[in-house]
Amino acid sequence: TRTDRGPQYVIEALDGEMGKDVHTVVVPIHDYELLVSRDPANIQAVLSTRSVHWDISEHRTASWEPMLGYGIFTSRGEHWKYSRGLVRPQFAMDQINDFDLYERHVQQLFAVIDSHLTYHDAHSEHGWTRPFDLQPLFYNLTLDVMTEMLYGYSVHSQKPSERVELPIVLGYESPDRENIGKHMDAGKAWIETRGAFWKYRWLLPSKEFEQHCAAIHKYAEWFVQLRLRRGDKYLCGLQHQSGRPNSDRFVLLHELAKITQDPVELRSQTLNVLSAGRDTTAALLGWIVYFLARHPRVCRKLRREVLHYFGRYVPEQPTGIQFREVRDSLTYMNAVINESLRMAPVVPLNDRVSLQDTVLPRGGGPNRDQPIFVPKGTQILIPTYALGQRPDIWGPDAGEFRPERWIDDGGHKSGFEFVPFGGGVRQCLGQQLARIKSAYVIIRLLQRYDRVANAEPPEAPMRFHHTIENRSGGGVQTLKGHKLLVISPWEAPAGLLEKLAAAFPDLHVVYHVQGWTAIPPSAADDIPDDMWHDVTVLMTFSTLPTPEQAPKLEYVQLMSAGANNVLDKPVFRDTEVAFCTANGVHGPQISEWIMSTYLAFEHHLPAYLQGQKEARWDRKDMLSIEDSANKTIGILGYGSIGRQTARLASAMGMAVHAYTLHPRDTPESRRDRSWTPAGLGDPDGALPAKWFSGASAADLHAFLASGLDLLVVATPLTARTQHLLGREEFEVLYAASSSSSSSEIGGERKKGRTFVSNIARGPVLDTDALFDGLEGGLIRGAALDVTDPEPLPDGHRLWGARNVIITPHVSGASTRYFERVLAILEVNLGRLGEGAELVNRVDRGRGY
Ligand code: HEM
């Protein structure tokens, strides 16, 4: 089609005109009929069980033969059998295992990528490249590798200065190594145009096509002649010996010439393999990067696997990459390759023609499950791409790129549902080579570059081409280091930048002091655009860029424990940027605030302080002092603050009741997944004597009715927790109090038992209900570090409420605050580099 979406068009036509559950159809085209089948049973019959009834079409032969000659890929019948017998033994495992060869060419790829780096200053090792297209670079890479494997002499399209001088072969001009790639690309474009004209291709002018074909033939012929003249000594003259004798090296031409001396045969077979192997692998690499750039999660996970086995890139060191590990251990890499081939099979359409009357097992009868008769001479189109998109085979998310389906879903499809390399008698000979080579290149890229980004508009459609090309890759970028911007109300603590630089040599840190007054509202405006534009990591309280200002942003480390300030910001709402809270930095100081206000209240400290001010020796009712032993603390929201509070309360002899929204029935689910300072908190969730959970009012009331002496409100503020505690809840607390022993300080009021401590956010409590609860004695007292409204205005009646301690949102303050946020940042920078999950990551669904 005009939009390069031919393979997609086949699906759209099948689904649209015939229905999603019709998999085999006959399509009239010009003066013949084309059978199209995306049914694995039929594909198996054609490629494998009844393959003797089928062969590749003359159309394929006629299209490709002028360029490649008759070889394994273009020939039919007996000649194909002969070709396969000739070429097949050359693909034994140990011949595709030449990592030294791959490495030399990958180094040249790196040099080209690095030439796109733009970030030049003292940290010139870091920074984004300009947007550029990796796809053509992969075509050069595979051309260089394949020409070296096939002929022994790489064309070095990536680094022409590496080309060695060739000897003279009398009667033959030196091959045009510089332009061979261009001739192949142009020749292929002609094949495509001629293919569209089908049997009327003779109508097209063909001179230009012939010139490209002649240049390609001349190129291969030269090596054939050199091999025929040099005989067994051919290998001696090869370039680049990689620590082993040239006589051990595998060169296809050399091996084939031991079997046949026919120059045309040698030229054709090597060109057939060159064409089959170069473009396919380059396109696969292009598609893998295409998906990684659009799926940062997958990219991070894959990088984690790569770094786990092979570590980061170390220049000029042996790679230590073992063939067996690449083949057998990289589970996720294999899943990514399979998933890329499923979503974008680089040979998206295959075909055959029937050599005799035959049958296919499925597609006939009213239910389309009966065999169908196929007359001799019928062409069948096998739309590999459409096969990979069938929801009944791959699940309802067949349209999504999800490598996990190859691991989690028991998903390995070994049958004819997944045939990117064909199947049966003509199955691809280069499958292992392609997989290993692609994995190797991706491993090296991920070791060296931290990430890859999409530089195309996100809505750009996938574009395919049936002559093995990824037409979609309009631009990707790679990045070597991270740029961290810290926006802080404090000057950088002494030694901070040095410490970060020592821990992360690739990190470029920019420190920007922004006064408290700017927070909130978040004033991003006083940060210049050129400071934003290449930031990948941001540490901030609430100053945030727009997605356009910081297009490379990947991770935001908030300096607050709550994320409620960012939930409505486009950079949070509309992007995949990871936001992490400072959850965990508050545990020590806030739990101390909770216990100190509670104890102050129980021990009448406010009254005694007042007495001290007035120089009064005035004892309160000594019998009303309650200590904490055997009391019960209820912690609403058992996060890092709650857990550290539980630790203190346990030490004082209190029983802990925890409440969480989601049930924590297993030891695993009780663990604390957020960052916790060493030795503090309750990492295993082992302290609570009772654990309550649930989203309903009844669930919450069961917790409140469990006999709480101290209720700590430590839940994040979300739509769900707004006014979570209102009149009804105070009544429930009171009802539970009256059924057990309680004491109170006030006069004739009700005798509520529970002291409420709010360190979360003001609106979690209904202020009016709280006031009435205090005044009416439903609760024993309250300590409030947060209020609603906040700041609490002059004259607000809560100031004067009975038994209340109010502080102006200070419980989180500590001299150790910044140090702890930095500890989280350090953990996460390490994880980011390894592609691991970040700690304290805000869940976009839950909002905390
Ligand atoms: C991602 C990479 C590759 C893919 C997706 C791929 C796909 C295919 C497919 C679908 C066929 C079967 C065509 C048919 O049924 O008529 C095929 C055949 C073939 N492939 Fe590959 N291929 C890849 C890489 C390679 C490489 C690297 C080589 C060699 C260096 C290679 C060599 C061949 C050969 C020689 C055939 C012809 C087999 C025959 O007709 O008997 N392929 N390939």
UniProtKB/TrEMBL annotation:
Any Pfam family: 2-Hacid_dh_C
One Gene Ontology term of the molecular function aspect: monooxygenase activity
Domain of life, source organism: Eukaryota
Keywords recorded for this protein, A-Z: Heme, Iron, Metal-binding, Monooxygenase, Oxidoreductase, Signal
Cofactor requirements of the protein: heme
Gene3D superfamilies for the chain: Cytochrome P450, NAD(P)-binding Rossmann-like Domain
Family in the record: Belongs to the cytochrome P450 family.
Protein name: Oxidoreductase-like protein
Organism: Parachaetomium inaequale
Upper taxonomic lineage: Eukaryota, Fungi, Dikarya, Ascomycota, Pezizomycotina
